[in-house]
């Protein structure tokens, strides 16, 4: 199988790094539900990145490329807010939505590759 193009994986990697930063930046005094949701989000983001890097984004459609571009923009805004010191509780939903989008893209790409292999 051909190597996965870097530009396809970068937004998924950035999403994972933001999820990691979310866990890292979370105060111990944050509610347990927030810490738990951040941990679950990190696991999901890590899985999306692992799947994408392994071989999940070798071939992407124009629609998926557009979705990757949107994810990159969402990541950029989350990163800005994180750097500006926005409370992690305010960023939690944005981080989760970014991870949901990353997973949808990876699943769609894998499905497309499996379908074309048949």
Characteristics:
single chain, 118 residues, mainly alpha, 4 helices, elongated
Structure description:
It is a single chain. This protein is mostly helical and 118 residues long. It is built from four helices and no strands. Helix 1 runs antiparallel to helix 2, helix 1 runs antiparallel to helix 4 and helix 3 runs antiparallel to helix 4. It is elongated and about 50 Å long.
Q: Helix amount, in percent?
A: over 70%
Q: Sketch the topology as an H/E string, one letter per element.
A: HHHH
Give the tally of β-strands: 0
Percentage of residues in DSSP E strands: under 5%
N-to-C terminal Cα separation, in Å? 15 Å
Rg result: 15 Å
User: Structural class given helices, strands, pairing?
Assistant: mainly alpha
* Broad shape: elongated
How many separate helices?
A: 4
Overall pLDDT:
89
Largest sheet: none
Stretches where pLDDT is under 50 for at least 5 consecutive residues are none
In short, what is this structure?
The protein is 82% helix and 0% strand. It is mainly alpha-helical and 118 residues long.
């Amino acid at each position: 199988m051909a190597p996965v193009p870097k530009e396809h994986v970068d937004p998924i990697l950035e999403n994972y790094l933001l999820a990691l930063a979310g866990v890292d930046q979370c105060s111990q005094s944050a509610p347990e539900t927030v810490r738990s949701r951040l941990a679950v989000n990190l696991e999901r983001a890590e899985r999306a990145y692992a799947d994408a890097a392994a071989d999940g984004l070798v071939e992407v459609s124009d629609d998926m490329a557009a979705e990757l571009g949107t994810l990159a923009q969402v990541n950029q805004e989350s990163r800005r807010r994180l750097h500006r010191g926005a409370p992690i509780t305010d960023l939690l939903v944005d981080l989760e939505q970014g991870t949901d989008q990353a997973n949808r893209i990876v699943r769609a790409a894998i499905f497309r590759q499996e379908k074309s292999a048949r």
